[in-house]
Structures are given as structure tokens and as C-alpha cells.
Automatic annotation (TrEMBL):
Alphabetical GO biological process terms: response to antibiotic
UniProt GO cellular component terms: plasma membrane
Highest taxon of the lineage: Bacteria
Entry protein name: ATPase component of ABC-type multidrug transport system
Membrane topology: Peripheral membrane protein
CDD domains in alphabetical order: ABC_subfamily_A
Length: 314
């Protein structure tokens, strides 16, 4: 994951964001920021307030309290020029079944033409956009005939047709097969590396978040309970790496904070008798589950000690 150097001013900034429905606080003091070219993943269990947060930042929902600034503008008062600089990929969009793919993208693209600038021509050329999302061979099909995965690719194309500076992605790869997901990840890297697009995404696919995100926010109970790179969050839960191996047909497991050193000593002692060596470090899924469980149990979200796993035959 690239090491991005934050600019002085964030592209997206949220301070003490609150959202109340009746007597229920869905968001309770959410604060975070995102910088140009950064991918920020917003994670959390169902009902944590992820979609509400994104809808407020998109300007589709009015917050109860707090501050939100996107591209220097309060989303609640964003005009058409501001909207032309943002892109949205919703969880699902089932309109326009009778349109053909190319015709729809050409039509939507015309709305962005007046908002071109010397530094950023809008919209994308349709052929370029079709290639980016993998729909070139389906360009003349009616949208109603597309498969679920192809329809999801079109959702992404609709979200980026105007060459957005900030892109909101809500569960963007739902319905993607592994190949489509890989191509989507390549697209995200292209948008951030070559277009300097800032991306805020929600996903339940933690492996995807770990691959894509420069920074991860974990939202639980309407609050941000963790904010950092995947590596920083993994270190904060203080879980040892697991070393697994076989010897003489037996399976072994050992937990250690120095897995490389342990593996070296293992080979020094047993040499070629060691087979199937595997080192499993704490990943984002482990970190996420630990931090959400801490929050739900009422425990502090600061560093917590874990019981070590003793070496044993499985």
C-alpha cells in the first residue's frame, strides 16, 4: 500500500458528526478526515452508521449536529458545481433497464461537460470508461439483459463518469466474481495513483479493505473506535503471529511476537524434518473482530493483553 503524504488541508473533514432519529443516536460524535489520493475504508457491523455517514457526506441526508466539509463545501449546501466533483456508487441501482449501456453513459456524461476545468476534463470518454470497468463488449446491450456482475460494473461506471475528485463507494463489489473484483481493485489504484481521487468506501469484505485502504476507520455504536493503517491497527491489538508446521506427520502451532526468528531456530534444530511451515500474522479481520468485541463488551479500545497460544500437537 502506498505511503501517501497528507496535504495541509484535508479533502474531506468530519468533526463531531451526530445523527439522531427520534431518541436514538445513530452517529454520536464521529470525527475523521481524508486527504487527496487517499483510500479510507469505513468498517463496522450492520447498523453502526456507515451508510448514514456516507449519505451525509454525499449531501443526501441532513445531519443533526456537527461539521462536515467535502472539497471545501458543506455537503448540505453543495451546488451543481460541487456535485460534479463528487461521485457515488450506491449499494444497488436498478433503473434504466431499457437503456443501452453506451447510450446511458453518453447521456449522463453530458451533464458533466459544463464543469470541465483546464486541469480536469469532464466526463471520461465513453470508450475509455467502458474499458476501465470491463464493459466494452457489452456496450450495446440493454441494461436489463446484463448479469448481476455486469450491472454492478455499470454502477461503478455511472459513479465515475464525471471524473470525480471524491468518490463514495458503498459495498462496491457486492455481486462481483473474483476476476471482476481484481479488476475493480486495479481501477481503484488507477483512480488514486493517476487521478488523485480521494475514496471513502464501506465494505464487509475485510480482505478487500486490507488490500485497498491506506487507512481504516472502525465504526461501532455510532463512534469511531479505531483509526489507522491496517498495520497500525494490527499492532494495537498486540496479538502474536501463529507459526504452524508439521514434523514426522504431527501438526504443531506456536504463537510468538518474533515469527521469523522462531522459524529460523526451528530449522536450525530440525532441518529437513520441518514441512508445511506457515506464518500467519494478525490481519485486518482479526483486528476488526477484536476491536468490535472490545467495544460491545464495554472494554477500553486501548491496547489489551492476550493469552499466548502454547506449542501443542493438534
Amino acid at each position: 500500500m502506498p505511503n501517501r503524504v497528507p496535504e495541509l488541508a484535508p479533502v474531506l473533514e468530519v468533526r463531531d458528526l451526530r445523527m439522531r432519529y427520534g431518541t436514538v443516536d445513530v452517529l454520536d460524535g464521529v470525527t475523521f478526515s481524508a486527504y487527496r489520493g487517499e483510500v479510507v475504508a469505513l468498517l463496522g457491523p450492520n447498523g453502526a452508521g456507515k451508510t448514514t455517514t456516507i449519505e451525509i457526506l454525499e449531501g443526501f441526508r441532513i445531519r443533526s449536529a456537527g461539521d462536515a466539509i467535502v472539497l471545501g463545501t458543506d455537503p448540505a449546501s453543495g451546488d451543481e458545481d460541487w456535485r460534479a466533483r463528487t461521485g457515488v456508487v450506491l449499494q444497488s441501482w436498478r433503473d434504466h433497464a431499457r437503456w443501452r449501456v453506451r447510450a446511458l453513459l453518453e447521456n449522463l456524461g453530458r451533464f458533466y461537460e459544463p464543469y470541465s476545468t483546464p486541469g480536469k476534463a469532464r466526463p471520461y470518454q465513453v470508450d475509455e470508461l467502458l474499458e476501465m470497468v470491463g464493459l466494452t463488449e457489452h456496450a450495446n446491450k440493454k441494461i436489463g439483459t446484463l448479469s448481476g456482475g455486469q450491472r454492478r460494473r455499470l454502477d461503478v461506471a455511472i459513479g465515475i463518469v464525471g471524473r470525480p475528485e471524491v468518490l463514495f463507494l458503498d459495498e462496491p463489489t457486492a455481486g462481483f466474481d473474483p476476476q471482476a473484483r481484481r479488476e475493480f481493485h486495479d481501477l481503484i489504484h488507477r483512480l488514486t495513483d493517476f487521478e488523485d481521487t480521494t475514496i471513502l468506501l464501506t465494505t464487509h469484505d475485510l480482505a478487500e479493505a486490507e488490500k485497498l485502504a491506506d487507512r481504516v476507520l472502525i465504526l461501532a455504536g455510532g463512534r469511531i473506535v479505531a483509526d489507522g493503517t491496517p498495520e497500525q491497527l494490527a499492532r494495537s491489538v498486540a496479538r502474536d503471529a501463529e507459526v504452524r508446521w508439521t514434523r514426522g506427520g504431527e501438526h504443531f502451532l506456536h504463537a510468538t511476537s518474533e515469527p521469523t526468528r522462531f522459524a529460523r531456530e526451528l530449522f536450525s534444530q530440525w532441518g529437513d524434518d520441518i514441512d508445511d511451515l506457515e506464518i500467519r500474522r494478525t490481519n485486518l479481520e482479526d483486528t476488526y473482530l477484536t476491536m468490535v468485541q472490545r467495544y460491545e463488551s464495554g472494554a477500553p479500545t486501548a491496547k489489551t493483553d492476550f493469552m499466548p497460544i502454547a506449542e501443542e500437537a493438534l
